[in-house]
Amino acid sequence: MTLSDKLPPQSAHALDRERIRRAPKVLLHDHLDGGLRPETIIELAAAIGYENLPTTDPAALAVWFRDAADSGSLERYLETFAHTCAVMQTRAALSRIAAECAEDLAADGVVYAEVRYAPEQHLAGGLTLDEVVDAVNEGFRDGERRAAAAGHRIRIGTLLCAMRHADRSPEIARLAVAHRDRGVVGFDIAGGEIGNPASRHAEAFDYLRAEGARVTIHAGEAVGMDSIHEAVLRCGAHRIGHGVRITDDITIGADGQVTLGRLASYVRDMRIALEVCPTSNLQTGAAASYPEHPIDLLRRLGFRVCLNTDNRLVSGTTMTQEFQHLRDTFGYGTAELEEFTVNAAKAAFLPFDERTALINEVIRPGYARLRARELSRVPVDGTAAAPAA
Ligand SMILES: O=c1[nH]cnc2c1ncn2[C@@H]1O[C@H](CO)[C@@H](O)[C@H]1O
Ligand SMILES: [Zn+2]
Fold first, then answer.
1. Which domain holds residue 242?
2. What is the ipTM of this complex?
3. CB 240 within 8 A of CB 273
4. Does any ligand 1 atom lie closer than 6 A to the CB of residue 118?
């Protein structure tokens, strides 16, 4: 197979920011504790007497997070979460943060999201694991209602993370299964990848497999193929968080001939989705630059790639902004945004009929409308009559 054979036609129209924002999008990889509003952190910190924030100016705090996370190392990136987790230790704080997350995603045009967090990191104020999950779910239901009142349709499921370096994964796996019909759609492991192999959590993954639970695993971000191999073949991951280092198992000859190794073939053949987060990858050193980011290669090779934010505050991003970077770097347009969105909907941890409805009743019609507007050159708000082409 040569790569040039696999190039789809690029969209003829450049998508402007507002059209990207309005297009229906699906987000599968977004951390609740990485996406707080800076104003909310400052308010909550003041209320509980948390004095370690680097600044109490919202704009400066947003810049601080992005800069501190721009370290080239995943470990340094993760250090910034101490400040967000510090203010996420009560029922009210968790519910508020989840509700605001739903509102912010909806305002960015996200119609379905799976938002993840590690319940074990929210026990310092005396909450139980079950109370943490209930508080977050309550917040999301509230946020969905508020978004609907503002004219935005969004649905949110949650993924419970266990931390790779800790030893609570069996408990968190049981928690995910106990709440699976009440807002929780799957399980993940997050945190430092180096020195913390997924196989340490084999007990949790064996249990989840026996329960038929849905699993995604952060892998192939700071560690390469070995980590992806473990995640998929030993731990049974249905999706991979990041997974960009799968390119270590792909060779491209001087003649453009592409060869996939056994692992890369498995991931592509089995339609294991790669939850790709370009900006986060640049910050942690998983990719050197947008042009060098493997998302375009993987997409052209037919991997089930979807586009994600990872951490909206820490990476200073939104879904709209992630796609703008790809538009500017690779010339992507409506077709590619729709492709990522449908890929994400196919890989969502929703029942089959709900995934189908999401694609056929929300995503496809949304993009059809977008394309019709492009053709007639109607302004995005549809108010003024467009001049004839
Ligand atoms: O890109 C990432 N790779 C690995 N772990 C991450 C990433 N982003 C956030 N977290 C970790 O996941 C926890 C639960 O949400 C966060 O507290 C953070 O430590
Ligand atoms: Zn992540």
1. 3-376
2. 0.99
3. yes
4. yes
